[in-house]
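Researcher: I'd like a structural prediction for the single chain below. Treat it as a standalone chain; there are no partners to consider.
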Amino acid sequence: MKKKVNKIEEKYTDHYLRLFIFASLLLLIFLVPITQPHFLRIHDVSELPKVTLIRILGSLALFLICLWLILGKREFILPPKSFSIWVFLFLISWILSTIFSTNFYLSFFGSYMRQMGFLSYFFYFVIFFLIYDVVDSQKEQNYFFWAIIFSTVIVTFVGILQIYRLMPWFEKVRTESRIISTLGHADFLGHFLVMVIPIILSKIYTSKEYYSKILYLLIFLSSFLVLLGSYTRGSWIAFIISLVFYYGYMFLRNRNFIKKNSLITILLIVGMIFTIGIFYFTEQEYYIKRQNLGVFSLKERFQSIGVGLGVTQSNPRILTWRDSINLFTDKILKSMRLLIGLGPETFSFNFTLYKSLDLARYDRGKGYPDREHNEFLDILFPLGIFGLISFCMILINTFRNGVYMIDKIPNSERILYLGVISGWIGFIIQSLVLFGLSATYLYFWSLTAFILLSYKFYDSDKVWKIDVRNLSHMLKSILFIMFTFISLFSIYISARFFRAEVFYRFGLDYSVSGDAGKASALFEEAIRLRPQESAFREAAVKAYLNIMGATTNENDKNYAFNRGLYHIEGMLKNAYYRSLTYNLVGAFYAQSYHYLGEKDKSLIYKAEESSYKALSYDKYSIPPMENLMRLYSFDLKDQNKALEIAKRILEIDPNHEEALNYMAQYYYVKEKYEEAKNIYENLLNQKPDSKDLYVNLGLIYYQLKNYKKVEELLLKALSYDPYDDKVLALLKKVYEAQGVKKSLPQIKLNDRVLVQRGLDYYNNKNYQKAIEFFEKALEVNPNSFEAMNNIGVCYYMLGDYDNAEYWFSKAINTKIDYIQAYSNLAYVLIQKGKVDMAKKIIKDGLKYKPNDESLKSLLDEVEKLKGKGSN
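Model: Treating it as a single chain, here is the predicted structure.
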C-alpha cells in the first residue's frame, strides 16, 4: 500500500513540475515581444525590460528542472546527438569568449544598449533545451503557436495605432515615420514579423472553420500592413524569400493542396495587394502631406533596395563591414582571438580605432556602430571561428533536418510545420543585414526547437535520451547547487538592474525638466544599484555640471565638482564608448574651470588632455574636436591650433556651422576677406534667414569697399530686426563712406519683427505691452499662429485663463500640428480643473508629433492628477 502511494506522489510531482516549466516557457513566448513599460520611456537603446523577463522566467524554469532532477526525473530528452553537440559547442564558445574577453563586464552583463551579454544569452540555450524536453506532443506545441499568434496580434494592434498616430512611442534615435510597435526599433519589428507571419499564413490554410480562416486572414493582412509601416527593406526581402520557399515547396511536393485551396491563395494575393494600396494611400494622404510625420515612402524604400551595395557614404553597413577588416587583421587574425574572438558585446569597444573617414562622414562624426549589422560577423568578431563554425553547423543541421522531416509529418500538421521553417528562414535572411535582440533571439531558438521536435513526435528513436536515474546522487546535487545558484543570481541581478533603470529613467526626466538636484539624487541611487554601468555615471557627471552652472553657492559648486570627479573615476573603468566618455571628461573639466571662477588653469589643460585622449580612440569623432576648438579659441588663445581643429572638423562634416564660422572669423582677422566671404555665402545658402550672417557678410563687403552690396545685406538684416542699433550705425557709416546724404530707411514691419518685439516685452514681464505687439503682428499676418499662442501665454501669466484658452485654441485651429499650443492649452485646462479635456488635447497633439517629450511628460502629469481624483 505504501509503495502505491509513493508511486502516485511521484506522478503528481512529475506532472506539476513539468506544468510549471511549460507555463514559464509559454509566458516567455507570449510576453517578451510585448513587454515595453510606458513609465520607463523605453526605446531602442534599452532592451532591459525584455531581457529582465527572459532572465527571471528562464531562471525559474531552470530552477524547476533542477528540482525535478533531484525529486526523481527519469530522463532528459534532447534533439538528435548530431545536432545537440553543435549547440553545446556554441555554448562553450560563449563561455570561453566571455572569460577571455577584452572587457569582461561588457561580455558577461552586456552593454547598456543591447544587454546581450553571456548572462542573457545563456538563457536562450536553457529555453531551447527545456522546450525540447517538456513539450511532449503536437497538441502541446500548438499552445506555443497560440502564444505566438496572440503576441503578434498585440504587436500588430500597437503598430497600427502608431501608423495612424493614435498612440505615442518613445524613439529617441530617430523621428521619422518608421513605427516600432513594442519591439523598440523598426528593424527589430520587421525581424519579428517575418518569423511569425508564415505561421499565421499556415493557420489560414489549416483552419477548418470559415470564420477561423477569415480571422487569421485579417491577422495576416494586419501584420503585413505593420511590416510595410516598419519601412524595413531587409524584412521585406526576407518575407518575400520565405514566401517563395513556402509556396515553392508546396508547389513541388503538394500541388493538390494548392489546387484545393486556390480560392484562399487568390484571396491572400488580392488582400496583400489591397493592403499595399491602403498603406500607399495612407502614406500619401497622411505622411507626405504632413512632412513632420516622416520622410520615408514605399516607393523610395523599394527603389533603394540593393542600390547602396557599393561602398558609399550612404551605406553604413557596407562601410562598417569594410572597416572591420582592419580590426580583424590587427586584433584577431594573428592571435588566439581567431578561435575565441574579442568577447560578446565588445565590438564598439574595439572598433572605433579602425573607423574610416567615409563612415565618419555618414553620421557627421557623431555616431558609432555598436554591432556589425550581420549576424555571422556579429558571431565571428566576439566568439571567433569556434563560435561561427558552431553556429553555422546549427543552421545547416536545422535546415537539413527540417526538410528531411517535413515529409514524415502527417498531412494535418505539415503545412503548419512548413510555416515554422519559412519563418525561421526569414530570420536567417534578414540576419544578413541585421543582428538579433531579446525577442527575435527568443523566437529564433524557439522556432529551432519546434522544427527539431518533429523527431521527438514522429521519429523518436533518433532523439538523444539521457537516463537521469543513472547519474550519481553527488552529481545530481552538484548540478542542482550550480544551476540553483545561477538562477538565484540571475533573478537577483535582473531585479537589481531593473530597479537601477527605473531610477535612471526618472533621473533623465528631471534632467530634461532642468531639476539637476533631483536628477543627481536619482542617478546616485541607480549607481548604487549598478555601480559598473558607465551610462549612469555619465548622466550623474552631466547633472553635477548643471548644478555647478546653476548655483551661486561656492560650497555647492565644490561639492558638485568633487562628486563629478568621483564618478569620472568610476566611469572610466567600464567605458565602452571610450571616445565619448573621454570627451565628457574633457567637457567636465572645461566647464568646471568657468563655473569655479576661472581660478585653476590646470583644469583647462586636463580638458585638453582628455579631449585628445578621446580622439586617440576615435580620430574622426567630432564632439572632442568641437571642445578643443573652443578651448583654443577662448581659453588657451591658440588660434593656429583652433584653425587646425576646425579644418579637421570640416574634413568630416563640410557643413559644420561652428567650424565654418570660426574659419570665416579667422580669415576676417587675418584680412583674407575673399576666403571669409566664400564661407559666409555658403553658410547663407544653408541658413538664409540668419540675420547675423547677413551682418557678418556685410562687414566683409565693407572691407572690400563694395558699399552697394553692404547696403543690400544690411537692409536684409534690418528686415529681421529694424531696431538693431549696431546694424543701423554700420549702415550710417556706409552712407558716410559713400559721401551721400541718405536718411536711414523705414523698414516695413513684418509679423516676425513685431513678434520679436512682443517677446522682448514679455521677457521684461510687461505682458500688456507684449500683447499689443502680438496683436499688431496679427494685423500684418492674420494667420500668425505664433502670435496667437504668445497672446495666450501672456493672458495665462496675467491669470486670465478664459482668454488664454481662446487664443491657444485659435492657434491650434490655424496650424493643426503646432505642438507648443497643445501643451499650453493643456496647462490652461488643468488650471481650470478640466483634466479630462486636457488629456484629450494632449493625445490630439501626440497624433501630430508622437515623440514630443513635453507632451508625453504632461500626459504623465495628467494621469497622476486623475489618479488623485481630479475631474
